[in-house]
Amino acid sequence: MNKKRWLALGIAVFLLVASLGFRFMSSVFSTDLESLFAMSDQQYQQEVIQEGTGNKIAVVELDGMIQDVSTSSLLNSGGYNHDRFLKKLEHVGEDRSVSGIILRVNTPGGGVVESDEIHDKIVEIQEEHNKPVYVSMGNTAASGGYYVAAPADKIVAHQATLTGSIGVIMQSYNVTELADQLGVDVNTIKSGEFKDIMSATREMTDEERDILQTMIDGMYDDFVQVIVEGRDMSESTVRELGDGRVYTGQQAADNGLVDGLGDLEDTAAMMQEDLDWSNARVVKYNNGYGWNTYINGKVQTMFQGEDAKLTAIQELIQQSDGPRAMYLYSK
Questions:
Q1: Which of 86, 283, 293, 313 is buried deepest, with most CB atoms within 10 A?
Q2: Which one from 195, 236, 309, 320 is the annotated catalytic residue?
Q3: Residues of the chain predicted below pLDDT 70
Q4: What tens digit of pLDDT does each residue of 35-84 get?
Q5: Which domains does the chain have, with CATH numbers?
Q6: Is 0.85 topped by the overall pTM?
Q7: Would you list the DSSP string of 77-144?
Q8: Is 143 a residue of the active site?
Q9: Residue tagged active-site, from 136, 143, 165, 199
């Protein structure tokens, strides 16, 4: 390569670096730097919902499907993050400045294990930190959403909230006929008779169905017991109500599944009245955003292209591969 070509290559590299630098600095200077640098890299930011000088009520939002997905990709740039939510709940529970907690639930439910982990964390806060936990239901607080609400000291729903859906579901596809039409032959080598149970490429046997039904029944029994203990209801009543159907907030109140009707503001007012707190300060705990978070976000945005989007889609497919039991309200 002659000197002219080396010079041209050097200029091209310089222009590329300069272009990336210019784009980054443009993003930086288009931001309110004074407020940005004023933001600390603390784990959580507190947004005041209601001013007050008395007891502090912390609002924690549970929004989106309850599932533990990878935190290493673009899939979790927003939306529900299970590990992050549990840590936030634990942080608020340990925060001595917080007198009470309102869990704002807006979810159709999700994984059995994940729902149980949230449930246990709420019970831990009540027992170890002696803090009241109220639940304020949003548009949907069904299945796993009701499971996590059950141990709360009081549950408040909007009259149009969709809740209930008490039960467990496990689903898979059967593409046998489609595979036959397309001439697709699936070869399976397995170590045991039931290793490919719920395979999408063959019919399920009666014995396999019995095995899975036994599993689902056991998980349903756990769900029922959580409501029996949390709501102080008889098992027969819970099983009668828990046939998988959803209830409006009004229907849930009529059946004793929730304690009252109202929105988040009403729930905070109920907590203050029940506990004889005057002029309480209501604060919502949001995820923290500091300088490091901002830098990482800008760099990710700069290099995010079609390849990154395809990677995210591929990861989503991999995580969705295979049936699993869910406390989930699905249409």
A1: 283
A2: 195
A3: 1-42, 70-78, 288-322, 331
A4: 444 444 457 899 999 999 999 999 999 999 999 875 444 444 457 999 99
A5: 33-164+245-300+309-328 (3.90.226.10)
A6: no
A7: SSS--HHHHHHHHHHHHH-TT--EEEEEEEE-EEEHHHHHHHHHHHHHHHHHS---EEEEEEEEEETH
A8: yes
A9: 143
